[in-house]
Design brief:
Blueprint lengths: L1 H7 L5 H34 L1 H4 L3 H36 L4 H17 L9 H25 L2 H4 L1
Helix pairs in contact: 2-4, 4-5, 5-6
Length: 153
Amino acid sequence: MGVLRDRLGEREDRFFATVFFGSGILFLAMLFTASAIVGAILIAFSAEPQELVNSATFHFVRAAVYTILNTYMIKMAAVFMMTASTLAIYIGFAPRWLALLGYFLSLLLLFGSYYIRWSFLLFPLWVFLISIHILRDNALRQRDTTSSPDQLN
């Protein structure tokens, strides 16, 4: 989020920047919440492994974590991808095809996360593609500044 906001600079739209930042923060908060719940149940399971598997607490925690991850966290990732893709088209910090891919993948996350088991991999894949583009762009900019004609004289 920080790298993208740095690339946007003064050109960022306040509304999209707020939705972008808010969805990213909510995504991380839900990720940490689900991790804490899973960690707590693992600690409880290590203390009494025979009794916990058949308990109502275990089934409740498993359903809660599934709901947090598959319903809310995946949806926030989709909102994050949509706003970042909109900013990419509006500002131009990424190629248009990457922004359109972000729209397509976010729609898959919004509507297909219940039906497509591997859909949770779409968000990290998109973030990886954006990261590769930004790293490549930074390397090209740095190479262009080091080989500029002003420095050769």
